[in-house]
């Protein structure tokens, strides 16, 4: 048998939207991922397997070559870096925006602004790029709570409909980046296993082209 290729998938919302694309690309898992506690799955192709990870771990697995390809949000690539990776395809799924957010009509901050986020690098670059002194406070979830609890003046978070912000009395302020899900490839694997990786890229590209709009 040919050496297996491993594709790292991001669990959660991205996985749900990825599965129909994998099905149409002929790469569907042989078991139901949703009802299993396993993390490694065989696919209908003997030479391809899937591993299910947190999004923040997908670039790491692919960069180190533990997985050859990955499917991950652009936010993770902006936060954790894209060195050692190619990004050949935008899958156009899980679209959202990275924004700063805070209370409407808040008086200007004197001195350093306190910003809560799980996107520490992105937040640091954003405020530094505008010449604003910011103290970035790392959180792992529920960013919108931080201004309510006076832990922070603003947050940097993912916004889709804006409902989460509005429900907590806040509004989106500055746009940082448009986000969607990307196919990434380990650069060394792209050279050594070019044929089989190009096959996967082409199959995913066809799946994107032929997908029915939701
Ligand atoms: P919304 O209330 O529709 O603006 O959604 C905002 C929340 O949903 C954010 O705090 C995110 O945690 C989550 N979210 C929305 N879209 C995405 C996405 N594409 N990827 C990851 N998380 C998302």
Helix proportion: 25-40%
Tell me which ligands are bound: adenosine monophosphate
What summary fits the major beta sheet? 6 strands, mixed
The side-by-side strand order for the widest beta sheet comes to 2-3-1-4-11-5
H/E element sequence:
EHEEHEHEEEHEHEHEEHH
Going by CATH, the architecture of the largest domain would be 3-Layer(aba) Sandwich
User: Structural class of the helix and strand makeup?
Assistant: alpha/beta
- Average of pLDDT: 96
Question: What is the assigned CATH homologous superfamily of the largest domain?
Answer: Periplasmic binding protein-like II
What coarse outline follows from CA principal-axis ratios? elongated
What percent strand?
25-35%
Outline of this structure?
The chain is of the alpha/beta class and 214 residues long. The chain is built from 8 helices and 11 strands. It folds into 2 domains: 5-94 and 180-212, 3-Layer(aba) Sandwich (D-Maltodextrin-Binding Protein, domain 2); 97-177, D-Maltodextrin-Binding Protein, domain 2 (3-Layer(aba) Sandwich).
Give me some keywords for this one.
11 strands; alpha/beta; D-Maltodextrin-Binding Protein, domain 2; 8 helices; single chain; 214 residues; binds adenosine monophosphate; six-stranded mixed β-sheet
Structural notes for this entry:
This protein folds into two domains: 5-94 and 180-212, D-Maltodextrin-Binding Protein, domain 2; 97-177, Periplasmic binding protein-like II (D-Maltodextrin-Binding Protein, domain 2, 3-Layer(aba) Sandwich), CATH 3.40.190. Helix content is 31%, strand content 31%. The chain has eight helices and eleven strands. The chain has helices at 13-24, 58-63, 74-80, 120-129, 145-148, 163-167, 187-192, 194-210, and strands at residues 5-10, 40-42, 48-53, 69-73, 85-90, 96-103, 113-117, 134-138, 154-159, 170-179, 181-186. The structure holds adenosine monophosphate (AMP). Adenosine monophosphate binds next to strand 9 and helix 6.
């Amino acid at each position: 048998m040919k050496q297996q290729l491993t594709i790292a998938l991001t669990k959660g919302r991205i996985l749900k939207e990825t599965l129909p694309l994998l099905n149409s690309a002929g790469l569907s898992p042989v078991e139901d991922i949703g009802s299993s506690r396993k993390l490694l799955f065989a696919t209908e192709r003997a030479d391809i397997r899937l591993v299910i990870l947190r999004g923040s771990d997908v670039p790491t697995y692919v960069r180190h070559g533990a997985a050859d390809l990955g499917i991950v949000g652009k936010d993770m690539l902006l936060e954790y870096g894209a060195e050692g990776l190619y990004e050949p395809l935008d899958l156009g799924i899980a679209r959202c925006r990275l924004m700063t957010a805070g209370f409407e009509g808040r008086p200007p901050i004197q001195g350093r602004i306190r910003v809560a986020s799980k996107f520490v690098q992105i937040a640091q670059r954003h405020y530094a790029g505008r010449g604003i002194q910011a103290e970035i406070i790392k959180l792992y979830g529920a960013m919108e709570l931080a201004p309510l609890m006076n832990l922070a003046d603003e947050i940097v978070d993912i916004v889709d409909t804006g409902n989460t912000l509005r429900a907590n009395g806040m509004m989106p302020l500055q746009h940082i980046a448009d986000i969607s899900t990307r196919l990434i490839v380990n650069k060394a694997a792209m050279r050594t296993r070019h044929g089989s990786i190009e096959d996967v890229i082409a199959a995913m590209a066809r799946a994107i082209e032929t997908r029915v709009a939701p």
